[in-house]
Structure formats: C-alpha cells, structure tokens
Design a protein that fits this description.
108 residues; alpha+beta; 3 helices; two-stranded antiparallel ribbon
Length: 108
C-alpha cells in the first residue's frame, strides 16, 4: 500500500506505472485506515491492472514474511530467544517466521 501513496494530488511512481502499463486512470483516496484505489478504464485494462496489484500485494507479503523469518533466525543464532525464555520463565518455540511463547500470563 505504501507504494501507492504520495503527496495529495501527486502520482506516486507506482500509480504512474500502473496507468501507463495498463491504460487506466488511478485515483488514490486516503481513508482512516489504508488507501482506496479508484480505477477507471476498460474492463480488460481494469482486470489487468487489478491482477498486477494482486501480484504486487503478494510480492510485498512475501518480502515481509522473509524479513520476519530472517529476524527470527538472527535472534535464534544470537541466543536471544532462549535467553528471554530463561529470564522470563517461559517456553519459546519457533516455526518459520512465527514465534510461540507459552507460560504464565504475567511472564508472556
């Protein structure tokens, strides 16, 4: 979503690229949470533009998950997770990019 934001009235590079590559007009409307993209064009150009947005969204989440995984691996390698577990009297296990903490509510 950050790729689509820009100053009011300005087109971000991502929006300008979508417009140029797919022959659509994209307006970005700010909302209390997130952004709303208003896309105008022919049905086929809107479909191709939406497919590109879906691809970008998937790519973004893959990058975020990769970052989380690298962070968890880094913390494990340094012994930070086991040290935090021992210090707080909890059990810490990892599964990919996820960290699970089990123990008394006050310790977790």
């Amino acid at each position: 979503v950050g790729q689509f934001s820009g100053h009011t009235g300005d087109k971000s590079p991502a929006v300008a690229r979508l417009e140029a590559e797919h022959g659509v007009c994209v307006e970005v409307a700010a909302r209390p949470v997130g952004l709303k993209l208003l896309i105008n064009g022919s049905r086929s150009s809107i479909d191709s533009c939406c497919a590109e947005i879906d691809r970008l969204r998937a790519s973004y989440w893959e990058e975020i998950e990769g970052l989380h995984l690298r962070t968890v691996q880094f913390l494990e390698q340094r012994g930070e997770l086991s040290r935090a577990a021992a210090t707080n009297g909890v059990k810490v296990t990892t599964e990919g990019a996820f960290v699970y903490i089990e123990g008394p509510p006050d310790s977790v």
